[in-house]
Amino acid sequence: MQANDPIKRSRRNSGAVTVRDVAKIAGVAPITVSRAINHPDTVSAELLRRVQEAVSKTGYVPNLMAGSLSSSKSKLIAAVIPSTVFSVFTETIESLNNALFDAGYQLMLGQSQYLASREEALLGAVIGRRPDGIFLTGIMPASNARKRLLASGIPVVETWDLTPTPIDMLIGFSHHDIGRAVADYFLDKGYKQFAAVRASDERADRRMSAFVERAKQQGLAPVHVVNVGSERTLTRGRQALAEILENASDVDAVFCSSDLLALGVLTEARARKIPVPDRLAVMGFGGVPIIENMIPALSTVQINSSKIGALAAEYLIARAEGRVVEAPIVDVGFSIHERDST
Amino acid sequence: MQANDPIKRSRRNSGAVTVRDVAKIAGVAPITVSRAINHPDTVSAELLRRVQEAVSKTGYVPNLMAGSLSSSKSKLIAAVIPSTVFSVFTETIESLNNALFDAGYQLMLGQSQYLASREEALLGAVIGRRPDGIFLTGIMPASNARKRLLASGIPVVETWDLTPTPIDMLIGFSHHDIGRAVADYFLDKGYKQFAAVRASDERADRRMSAFVERAKQQGLAPVHVVNVGSERTLTRGRQALAEILENASDVDAVFCSSDLLALGVLTEARARKIPVPDRLAVMGFGGVPIIENMIPALSTVQINSSKIGALAAEYLIARAEGRVVEAPIVDVGFSIHERDST
DNA sequence: ATGAAAGCGCTAACAA
DNA sequence: TTGTTAGCGCTTTCAT
């Protein structure tokens, strides 16, 4: 009933402060507020000041969803990882997120829990948000999800693996080469009876297959493999060594699909007073920082986890901003870090 | 130049498939497509079928940003945590994310790296996305950020701490009580000369202050405290014990602000062949799974990290969907898990 | 350097 | 049950 009742808004209105409110107070057009905030250098000093004043007076926080919808730039990067708990991926995510933050991007995190079913659903949600880029842990096999990803046109970086047919960009290393290299390394050191402790996951599978195959090629006895399924725990690593010793007491070298499992094997060896590395060698995978200064320090296949995250951020941001990424297929390699356990 | 050239779209158009395209193919109105997707039970079977067909034919993925803008519901929850690397928060985040996913929500993750400056910037970005809820690690002190959060009207849950003045909801425990309880526990066990190893963070500060104060209250000699700053590593834990022994060789019990630091202390003790727990007791904080089955198994102040995440998800989702949360202030407590190291 | 108009893709509100 | 209309809050396009 006020005289200056604004035009009757027939429907909604969420109540929050909008560009329009700020514009009215600053005595400018909404578009000027937008420019003052996003491209301050294209606006005169005087107007800039007035807008800033109005912004702080009202506590205006721009609605980024509206901005994204309008500009088709979301400043959002989505990452899909299997798990964060004591996993080698945490460092990748941390470096990815830090780099994104510095460039003004946000990270959306989806955890697939190593479940293919979940990955599919996750991807729908991810694409629906129209992120400017997608970070994938692992490579995406031919599937419905892959088709949707391809169709979306969103820049994608697959990581932690290599393939001749990436969706788009790729930052990884060869799991096959690792298995082979570890077998050769053990052989070199004079170990003769190998075992493997692994979780159920496709990449571990390839490392272990190559390890087993190489041992066979070199004329060794069959490798005793324990698959711990989805129980990626230290305890399960301990049990695995117990199983191995029961069934193949002459095993003298164990390759584990993760540092955590290797820590378990090491722990069980200690419990049984088995001399490491004299009687038993243990090799981990990943290179989480903690293992380096334990006693005994764990030898491992070291992956530069942070580098993967940092590179991925760089590539994704470049593409999001329309730049061309020169060499978007990178093999970051690996290195066997010899420590006390081998 | 085609005869059926559509109405000349004067401006933009991102090229992707939209509701309109699907609607045209299915021979219905756009809103019907929207309903068929979001509320399938309000649409006749026949139309539902036609819409689904059109969706799969076109590969339509709804633009959730547009939907959010229109409905003021983003189905996004933002979480701000200090760090993910070997941190006790990973389990909280994992359980939070899992619960959110099951309810159709996405997680946006921001890492503050324990930097107040970063937290402020992060919060701006977070509020700008208009998430349906915000998960905070720790409590937010009076500050500009707190004001903005309050003003935003977004449901907030603060965690991992207690305060009489939460912003909104709260799921935590008393750091003061922990420090006190650990001192009492050590005392009970007959230890007499305490030390502490801690990182720079406000919550560790309160645990340690209470620990120190209680020891004093009980007539013990001053507690020797080593502050490792931001170096939350196993190695730094080792160094810390070395420092302690150099300056206070009669120390017989060490309380650490994290399990990782405690693992370092334990490792150094082993390197020096100091009998644990006879000559030296070590207590960690957090309860990361790995410590339970190591040798020696680390005693720790166990926090139910997953429960915090799960509860937070429950509360945040309830509030996002307009429901009332009955008791939004929860003390999840803690428990001292006695293992080999004490 | 600034503004007016249009529209990003979706759904709430109202109508039939 | 289905459709029409309007508008969420912003920025692009075009004009001045």
Describe the structure.
- Two copies of one chain form a homodimer.
- Chain A is of the alpha/beta class.
- Chain A is 43% helix and 16% strand.
- Chain A is built from twelve helices and twelve strands.
- Chain A has helices at 19-26, 30-38, 45-58, 64-71, 89-102, 116-128, 144-152, 175-188, 202-217, 234-247, 259-271, 305-320, and strands at residues 76-81, 106-111, 133-137, 156-159, 169-172, 194-198, 224-227, 253-256, 281-286, 299-302, 329-331, 335-337.
- In chain A, the strands form two sheets. In chain A, strands 2-1-3-4-5-11 form a six-stranded parallel beta sheet, with helices on both faces.
- In chain A, helix 9 links the parallel strand 6 and strand 7 (224-227).
- The first copy, chain A, is elongated, with a radius of gyration of 27 Å.
- Chain A starts with 18 loop residues before the first helix and ends in a 5-residue tail after the last strand.
- At the A-B interface, helix 4, helix 5, strand 2, helix 6 and helix 7 of A face helix 4, helix 5, strand 2, helix 6 and helix 7 of B.
- Chain A binds a DNA duplex (16 and 16 nucleotides) through residues 9-14, 16, 18-20, 28-32, 34-35, 38, 42-44, 47, 62-72.
Q: Main interface pair?
A: A-B, 65 and 64 residues
Low-confidence stretches of chain A at least 5 residues in length (pLDDT < 50)? 1-9
The DSSP helix count of chain A reads: 12
Q: What structural category characterises the helix and strand content of chain A?
A: alpha/beta
Number of strands of chain A: 12
Helix fraction of chain A by DSSP (H/I, runs of at least 4):
40-55%
Task: Give the C-alpha Rg of chain A.
Answer: 27 Å
Share of β-strand residues of chain A = 15-25%
Kindly, what is the distance between the CA atoms of the first and last residues of chain A, rounded to a whole number of angstroms? Answer: 84 Å
Quaternary class = homodimer
Question: SSE string of chain A, helix = H, strand = E?
Answer: HHHHEHEHEHEEHEHEHEHEEHEE
Strand order of the largest sheet of chain A: 2-1-3-4-5-11
How confident overall, as mean pLDDT of chain A? 93
**Major sheet summary line of chain A:** 6 strands, parallel
Overall shape of chain A: it is elongated
